[in-house]
Structures are given as structure tokens and as C-alpha cells.
Amino acid sequence: MIPEKAPGGDVLHAPGDLKKEAHIPSFEKYKELYIKSVESPEEFWADVAKDFFWKTKYTGKFLDYNFDVTKGEIYIKCMEGATTNICYNVLDRNVHERKLGDRVAFYWEGNEPGDEKTVTYRELLQQVCKFANVLKSQGVKKGDRVSIYMPMVVELVVAMLACARIGAVHSIVFAGFSSESLCERIMDSQCCLLITADGFYRGDKLINLKLIADEALKKCRDKSFPVEKCIMLKHLTKEDEASSGSLSPPAKRACPDLQVPWNPEVDMCWHSLIGGASEECEPVWCDSEDPLFILYTSGSTGKPKGVLHTVSGYMLYTASTFKMVFDYHSDDVYWCTADIGWITGHSYITYGPLANGATSVLFEGLPTYPDVSRMWEIVDKYHVSKFYTAPTAIRLLMKYGSDPVHKYKRTSLKILGTVGEPINPEAWQWYYNVVGEKRCPVVDTFWQTETGGHVMTPLPAATPMKPGSATFPFFGVVPAILNESGEELEGPSEGYLVFKQPWPGVMRTVYGNHLRFETTYFKKFPGYYVTGDGCRRDKDGYYWITGRIDDMLNVSGHLLSTAEVESALVEHEAVAEAAVVGRPHPVKGESLYCFVTLNDGINYNQKLEAELKKQVREKIGAIATPDYIQNAPGLPKTRSGKIMRRVLRKIACNERDLGDVSTLADSSVIEHLFENRCYTAV
Ligand code: WTA
Q1: Where in this chain does the record put each Acetyl-coenzyme A synthetase N-terminal domain (predicted)?
Q2: Domains along the chain?
């Protein structure tokens, strides 16, 4: 399945000095280890597990699973019976056993240039222990769910690791989500406590996070799910740094006048609580298969799914992917630009890098603020050697040409990574040629919230690169391409990307809905985990992800379900029906093109358009803001009443070649829709 030898010809290779020191220096070595990882997973992962602390050893099989719905319930268990603590492994082990206490864990770089703070492993451990004691004093116990809704500050990492230390399950909600989305997530995972902050800046924009958090808690209360405890970090309104016990410095762009709503019955101040807390906190020893966190991801039915990951498998997998894929060495400074509110931040800002004792940049701001050189300025400032970002950011910066990049030296860079969506070869080439000056391999990492870590990816010194291809599977991952009838295709082919067996980091269930887990990922093709992505394999065996093949859209690397946006639109009293499709966008990858059918007697106008836009922002969040809204008195439907999205996608792109429309019930709607297309974004 993986070629015997690395293909020659039209591929790019890593520079020789990178190969000399690499963990996996050649394609042959990759292949040898890959075979070991799938034929004897126990042996392969035992080597990885050796580096970690285990209170007790596992009792059964290393990896026990059923991947076939026809044979009973789906389950995946890794190292069941072993006890450990992931917080102990990423902090105490580094400070005490590996003597890395003085090593920098994070260089925090605020939104405003000049706002900065350095945090060592020892300091991080102290803060985590203190905050874990705070959580305990609030009655949080092993297994309880805690919701975290915070900006990109070190305290976000402190909050998540404090949960992990006491065996509580964190459920982080990206701080760009609306109060409605936060409420839905708090209720679904039945969180007992919310941790948030007063507010933050995204570029120039001030966001009063506490206000949104309060709205969410009010919505929870209205739906008979009162959350009685909310801990708020003062990020913008803090007065006195010395007494606050906080890790973030006073923001240069502080906002002491921010109007922060306060309910003394519910709200507590992070700083006052942590001030009196002890620095001693024994970790709670957890079983390998105890839940670690829940992270919501869009589902094709519209309701987000609470993806659940457990302790040991996730720890081994994020640690080893981080080490191999970024070829981590102790002198590296690593920077992942993702937000911790997404899986990329969970796995590759918090757990993977810390498990390796790495030094990372934690960036609060935006790539374009205060100007479009900001990324490269930060790379030079901290001598970043491994840099990980998303295609949408690359395409955005590409628009401004190479001058803003050339303003900075970037000589520290060694490896560049991308994640989140297929990277078009043009953006890949710009990243490789302009940012990396042809010195730095690009690792195009394909993975999902559900997979926990990278599943298809080059290894930088071992895998010859093809621009736009996620290349080959990571250790332990066995991909296949299936046709519509579920047959495995051999050789060059295109179809559904599936995986044939689990790896330690794969999700274990959808929180509170195991049936949905089985239906979503295992029902369509029994015996396989179905990714929902299309994939092509070329003559050299390289895999090329072609994008989602379900009703999901990928806007700036964020997955959105069309159903979710449609239901937000239909909730408006003027709308009878809505259909949302993706339209290619040069920076965002896809943009949202919405067709709405209004109720009888209602006129379409700009005011209504603005209301609809606002409605979606409020229901889901700014990432789901419609780019185009078209008034559609009629939608193309099949005779059985199914909306033909395929046709709508063509209309959105003004492509007249509609293919087979013989099942269309009323073809007269098509011309009307073409005539009234939106040409400019709303
Ligand atoms: C897409 C993000 C092509 C894919 C880590 C997947 C990619 C979805 C890549 C998961 C890549 C992610 N090439 N497509 N390198 N990386 N995707 O759950 O469609 O936010 O299914 O996890 O992003 O998005 P999620």
C-alpha cells in the first residue's frame, strides 16, 4: 500500500542537514516503523509509553476494539486498567523527573505588540495546582464537566490542565461562538461550572466576553439548566498585577472601564480565588479510558456533536505525532497559530507540545494586526523554528505579496505545517518558496477533531513532498479508499476516505449519544471509520484529500454544517425555507451562499437581509455569517421534495452546466434563480 521506495521525479525533498538529525530520517525508516506500528501496535506504542509515568500498568490488551457495527457495539479501548494523569505527565514529569522546570513553556504574545509574558514549566505547574485546588474548593470532582469560554491567554491552558489534574472533563467552547452556541454546549455536556474572562481584543475589536457568557447562562436558566458557578478572569480590567496572581501581564491595551456584568450569587473572580489557594495538589489518578475532554464539532444534522477523548490513548498519540511530524528537538521554539478552542489548539498547543517539554508561542492576536507582517515579526522575535498554521491564513497573507514577509529574516524556521482544509498547490508553493525560502519542508497534516491527532501527513525528513498532498498515513493508521458500494479500491483511485483500524488517539464516543457515534462514523460502511472526506490516490500511492463529501462546509478551516445555518435562518419569522451551499472563496476556501424562501406576503429588502445575517451570527457565531443571501421564491426540488443542493451550488457559482436535472420537479425555478443571483457579498 505504501510504495517500497520513495517515488522520484516530481517531488521535493528535505534539506540534508534536517535529515541528519531527524527522528525519522528516511522513507525506508518510515516504512519499517509503519509496518511495525500496524502489525505489532503493542510493541510500537510500548516504546512511546515508556517515556510516560504510569501509576499502575494496563491489564488487558494494549488496543481492544470493535470497528464493525454488524458485530455489536463499537468500542475502542487503549491500555485499559492502567492509571495515570495527563497533567502530571505534561507538567510534574517535566519539572521533577526531566529537570525542565526553568524551561519556557509559553511565550505569550498578546494582541497588542509589546504585550508579552514568559511562563516556565515550573510556574505553569504552580498555577495549575493552585487553580485545581480552586476547582476542588468549588466542589468539582472527577468526572464532572467544566465549560471553558476564554480568549487565548495562558490561564486557558491553566484551566484545562487543572481540570485534567483532578480528573474533571473540560469542554472548551471557542470564544467566537455566540451565547446560544455556548448555552447549547453547556447543556449538552451538563457542565457544573463555567470559566470565562471579562473580555479581549481581536485586532481592533473589543469583545465583552462576560456579557455573552452571561447571556448563555441566562438561556441555560430559562431552559431549566441553571449553572450556579462562573469564574471570571480579569484580562482587560485587572488593576494590580502583583496581587492578582495572574500569569498575563496588564494588557497594553487594557480596558479598565469595560462594563462587566456581575451577579454575586454566581460570579467569582479568578484572581481572588487563586490568591489564597495552595500550590500543592496531588493529581487524581485516572484510568486510561476515563474521559479527558469533550470538544464540539459540527454535525450534518445541525446539532453539534460532543466528541469525547480519553486520557492515555490521546496522550500517547498527541505526544508522538507532535514529536515526529514537527521533528521536535529540545532547542526548538514552536508556534501553532490555531485557537485552543479548536482541536488543533488542544492537541498541538497544549497536550502534544507540553508532553514533549517543548517551548511554544501562545498568540492572542490576528495575522493582520497591526499589520500583515505580524506573523513574521513574531517568528523573528522568538526565533520560531517550527511553524504551524492554516491554508486560509496563508491565502490571506499571500494577497499582500512577499514584501511584508521579506521585512523579517525568518532564518530560524525549519519546518512549516498546515492544517484545516485542503491546501491548494499555489498557496503551498507560496508558503514553501516565500515563507520558507525552499529550506523548510511543508507538512500538510490531515486530521479531524475525531481523530485526536494527525492521521495522514508527511514526516518532514522522510517523506518526499507533493504540493497539496497529505501524502501517507501516520503510524498505526490504516487508510482505504472505498467506492459508493463500499468496495476497497486499489491503486490510483478516488472515493471515500476511511480507516480500517483504530489508533490510540481516535475518539471514543459522542458524549451522551453513543448511537449517534456509531451512525455517523461506522454505519455507512460497516468495518470502517468513515471520515466524511473524499480522497484520491495517485500512481505513486500518495493520498490527496479532496474535501468533505457530506453536507459540511469548510469556511476558513472551520467546519460548519449547512443544516445548522439553515435552521438558524428558518427560525426567522419571515423565512419559510432555506438552503445553504458553499461557494469557492479565494481566502476562506468556501463562503456561505444562502437561498431563502420567504413566507407569503413578505417582501425581501436590505433590512431583512441584515436581520437574517444577524440572526445567524447570534445563533451560531461570527464564523457562520452568510456571505451571500438570495431571495428564492422557489427552490429546485426532486419529485420527492428533496432540495437539489448540487444544482444550487452551480447557481451560486454561475455555472450553467447543471448535469442531469431529470429528477427536478419544476425546472422553471432554475432560470429565475440564475437571473437573481447575488454578485456581491452582503
Ligand atoms: C478538513 C481540524 C485537507 C477535512 C484538525 C476534515 C483537511 C476536517 C486537512 C476536520 C488537510 C483538516 N487537508 N482537509 N490537511 N485538515 N481538513 O474537525 O475536511 O475542525 O474532515 O479538525 O477539516 O476539521 P476539524
Answers
A1: 30-90
A2: 16-83+325-548 (3.40.50.12780), 127-251+258-284 (3.40.50.980), 556-676 (3.30.300.30)
